[in-house]
Amino acid sequence: MEFKDYYETLGVAKKASADEIQKAYRKLARKYHPDINKTPEAEARFKEIGEAYEVLKDPEKREKYDRFGTAWKTAQRTGGPPPGFEGVRFDFGGADGFGASGFSSFFESLFGGGAGFPGGGAPFGGDPFAGAHRAGGPRRQPPQNVETELRLGLRQAARGGQRTITVSDGGGGRRRLDVKIPAGVLPGQKIRLSGQGGAGVGGAGHLLLKIAIDDDSDLRLDGTNLTTTVDLTPWEAALGGTVTLPTLDGSVTIRVPPGSSSGRRIRLRGRGYPAAKGGPGDLFAELRIVVPTSLSDEERRLFEELAEASSFQARETETVPTDS
Predict the structure, then answer these.
(1) What is the mean pLDDT of residues 286-308?
(2) Scanning 13, 27, 72, 152, which has the fewest C-beta atoms within 10 Å of its C-beta?
(3) How far apart are CA 114 and CA 149, in angstroms?
């Protein structure tokens, strides 16, 4: 895999905070998600963004990336420390520093970054029993389960279906796998691909795809409920009216009651996320009153007339005691 500057990919400085990195990732992931952006280069860009975020969001991985830079590429290809780093231990959780469940997780991004060693390949194309020789004699490594994250758009996760992903075979090659995504899959749930994990004695382990779901531009997921924000003018909030809401399967029109304030939530039962178990959640329309940032002379005059005519008080008035 060709080395890339992950900071440049996310458009952040090398001293960027974790919050800045997460904010940059979310902005770019939403912009280039294949479900939203249909340009030819969007999917490749989305893969690069996910790969960069997988490293920079993790303080330990980020420290090692900052330390070794392009030497990561050499380490991946040769299966050993890069030239000049022979005395350095790369500790990523594997039995010998470069184990299948360790260093491989650095390149676990499914969209071009590799995820485990399916197809019988060994870590970095080396001996599948490397690191197995101990003081007590040779020990062969059992099949290894490999877990990685599969990010889905909200609407794609809701409807489910077939998806093709690309994973590394550990020897420089890549293979494409078809994944069946159940409709209504939830964040944190896992899809298991048998025999597509790390190779060992007797075969290969499982590849576990842990689901993560990105909010849509106008819908947010909370459990099995969905929330959308509805902007209202002051007069719509005061007088009531009808507004159109987005849903996962089209749009729906609701009535806003007169006298609605910002923060009020209108609930539509059964119009939320279609969870595979337990039935669909609800859709909540969260109202937000928006005022004009600039007024014409006529608008200003009318607002001033309203202020003069209205006896409504948004805040309680306090009586300040006076000295007698």
Answers:
(1) 93
(2) 13
(3) 11
Q: How many residues does the chain have?
A: 324
Strand-pair category, 199-200 with 203-204 = antiparallel
Q: What is the largest CA-CA distance in the chain?
A: 96
DSSP 8-state secondary structure symbol assigned to residue 256: E
169-194 burial, b for 16+ CB within 10 Å, e for fewer? bbeeeeeebeeebeebbbeeeebebe
Q: What is the mean pLDDT of the chain?
A: 77
- Output helix, strand, coil percentages for the chain, rounded to the nearest 5: 25, 25, 45
Task: Scan for tokens 């800045």, then name that residue.
Answer: 20
The confidence score (pLDDT) of residue 113 equals 40
Lowest pLDDT segment from 32-36, 69-73, 178-182: 69-73
Which of 82, 116, 86, 120 is closest to 99 using CA atoms?
Answer: 116
What whole-number distance in Å separates Cα of residue 47 and Cα of residue 165?
A: 11
119 and 169 Cβ atoms separated by less than 8 Å? yes
Which residues, including other chains, have CB under 8 Å from residue 17's CB and lie 6 or more apart? none
Task: Give the chain's count of helices (H) and strands (E).
Answer: 9, 15
Between the alpha carbon of residue 314 and those of residues 129, 290, 311, 318, the distances in Å are 73, 16, 10, 13
User: Cα separation of 116 and 169, whole Å?
Assistant: 7
Three-class secondary structure of residue 197 per DSSP: coil
Q: Does residue 193 sit in helix, strand or coil? A: strand
pLDDT digits (tens, 9 = 90+) for 13-25: 988 998 899 999 9
> Could you tell me if residue 96 is left (phi over 0), alpha (psi between -120 and 50 degrees) or otherwise beta?
alpha
Dist. CA 238–CA 70, nearest whole Å: 60
User: What SS3 class is residue 158?
Assistant: helix
CA-CA distance, 55 to 52, in Å (whole number)?
6
- At residue 196, the 3 state secondary structure works out as coil
Matching residue, tokens 């003069």? 308
